[in-house]
From TrEMBL:
Signal peptide: none
GO terms for MF: methyltransferase activity
Domain of life of the source: Bacteria
UniProt protein name: Methyltransferase
Protein species of origin: Octadecabacter dasysiphoniae
EC number: 2.1.1.-
Keywords: Methyltransferase, Transferase
Transferase listed as a keyword: yes
Gene Ontology process terms (BP): methylation
Length: 505
């Protein structure tokens, strides 16, 4: 029996602490990086960028939609009037219900709600036993299981690219993994209309959603990255249109690194990011007024000596705080991010992820992505780091739970029971509560008091390896209606025999 199993077995005989991390509300007022007049100035400058400098749009259909709505189009450049942008932003919903496979997995995207995702979009995976490697389907499925295991991770992201699966059929494998291994909200890549539509069809059929229900509610999401500075490419513009028409969620995320794809100042980078986000939201709203879309940012800086991305920096935190102010000015739910540029799961990795995570948390972000497992600026996702980062994520989640401060919690009886210079270990108040007073959410068991000889030189990474292996070994997927998996497999086999759906670019 592992130490983790032993803790679980002992806990089964005790009063268990009940926690609910599935629907979090951030109880703290968001912090500001700028005065309100400076936020107004950044917003005005962003509108000036869109109206005077314009944005390059590579998809002809998108340019046509913009022109019909009143924008000026000159070749591939689109110039957006401020009134068009502001009217479009006003149409975007301020609260979005995203429906999971069961009602308990539904989440609401709105200002004040708090939703976590692990690291995403990585070409590589790594763990202590198998080393760093190009991402495989097995890695993707294992990481999906780990994501499903933790209630404080609310949405399934594209954790790692399964590069052993050809692109024309990769969406089948990824959607099958999400649907069969989890009942959380799934992700769909915007890699061309055929792949998007087939992913929608698989989702609807597996979860028993009618076409009408699908058009009236959001069941999945995509992430739209602009090509900073000031460009919307073909698949991203097409993704906005496809998801808007289907009534599914687009999380708009300019990736603006100060000094590289954006001005070197925080305010300058936010001006660009804000302009690009508003342009993308405008495209979605003129496609389908009221389409569910969120504001977003991923603004940090680069190491100006090497050009490499940097995370967990003061500049990233300031940018997150400023982005929160801009999102609140628009009234939209918004996405922010943690992250790390460290090469391995070490002290640097923990520091960068926690500092950037605190920045997003204190900024009032609705969705915090890359909150667990991300290394090398997104090149790699680490199994061990996902586990150790969950201590941070679930600390944030615990901060969102109510703090017990009734008369009994104030503990006058305990203070009266314990004599001066005594201790509270055996006090009645303590004994009634010690099983539920403190919570080790991941099972890392950080305390070293009296256990060094037992553990030897076992470090956090070694303990994390044992934990993720335990989770995968004991994993039980959600129950599905009879025949659903067989029907899904038959659909995939049929489409694969026809050649799949090559991504459009």
């Amino acid at each position: 029996m592992s130490k983790r199993q032993g803790r679980k077995a002992r806990g089964a005989q005790e009063t268990q602490r009940k926690v609910d991390y599935r629907n979090l509300r951030n109880p703290f007022p968001p912090l500001n990086a700028f005065t309100e007049d400076r936020i107004d100035a950044i917003h005005a400058a962003s509108l000036d960028v869109l109206g005077r400098l314009g944005i390059k749009v590579l998809l002809p259909e998108a340019r046509s939609l913009f022109e019909t709505a009143g924008a000026r189009v000159d070749g591939e450049m689109v110039y957006l009037p401020a009134a068009l942008v502001e009217d479009s932003i006003a149409m975007a919903p301020k609260s979005i219900l995203l429906k999971g496979g069961v009602p308990e997995r539904d989440i609401t995207l709105t200002l004040g709600s708090l939703i976590f995702q692990p690291g995403a979009g990585c070409p590589h995976a790594t763990d202590l036993e198998r080393g760093r490697r190009a991402g495989t389907l097995n890695d993707y499925l294992e990481l999906t299981k780990l994501t499903h295991h933790f209630d404080a991770l609310h949405m399934l992201p594209p954790l790692v690219e399964p590069q052993d699966v050809p692109m024309n059929v990769r969406h089948y494998a990824m959607m099958r993994g999400q649907l069969t291994l989890s009942d959380k909200v799934p992700f769909v890549f915007s890699r061309g209309t055929p792949q998007v539509q087939e992913s929608f069809e698989m989702l609807k059929a597996f979860r028993g959603v009618t076409d009408t229900e699908f058009s009236q509610n959001a069941y999945c999401y995509t992430i739209i990255n602009t090509n900073s500075p000031r460009q919307l490419d073909v698949p991203m513009a097409q993704g906005i249109i496809d998801f808007a028409r289907a009534g599914q969620v687009s999380i708009i995320t300019p990736f603006t690194l100060m000094g590289a794809m954006a001005p070197v100042t925080v305010a300058g980078a936010l001006t660009l990011s804000h302009a690009e986000a508003m342009a993308a939201i405008t495209l979605g709203q003129i496609t389908n007024p009221g389409a569910p879309m969120t504001y977003g940012t991923f603004t940090s800086n680069v190491d100006m000596k090497s050009g490499a991305p940097a995370f967990g920096t003061p500049e990233q935190v300031k940018a997150s705080l400023g982005a929160g102010q801009l999102a609140r000015k628009l009234g939209l739910p918004w996405r922010c991010a943690a992250g790390s540029a460290a090469n391995i799961n070490d002290a640097q990795a923990a520091h960068e992820t926690e500092i950037s995570g605190w920045g997003a948390f204190l900024a009032g972000a609705t969705v915090i992505i890359h909150s667990a497992g991300w290394l090398e600026g997104g090149l790699t996702i680490s199994y061990e780091k996902l586990i150790t980062d969950m201590d941070m994520v679930q600390t944030f989640a615990e901060l969102c739970t109510a703090t017990d401060a009734d008369d009994d919690a104030i503990a006058l009886t305990a203070l009266a029971e314990v004599e001066p210079s005594g201790h509270f270990f055996g006090a009645t108040h303590t004994m009634e509560r010690y099983q539920t007073a403190f919570y080790d959410p991941v099972g890392m068991d950080w305390s070293n008091i009296g256990t060094w000889k037992e553990r030897g030189s076992e470090d956090a990474n070694t303990r994390a390896t044992a934990i993720w292996k335990d989770i995968l070994r004991d994993f039980v997927p959600p129950k599905h209606a009879p025949g659903k998996i067989a029907d899904l497999d038959a659909y995939i086999a049929e489409k694969t025999a026809l050649g799949g759906a090559p991504p459009e670019s």
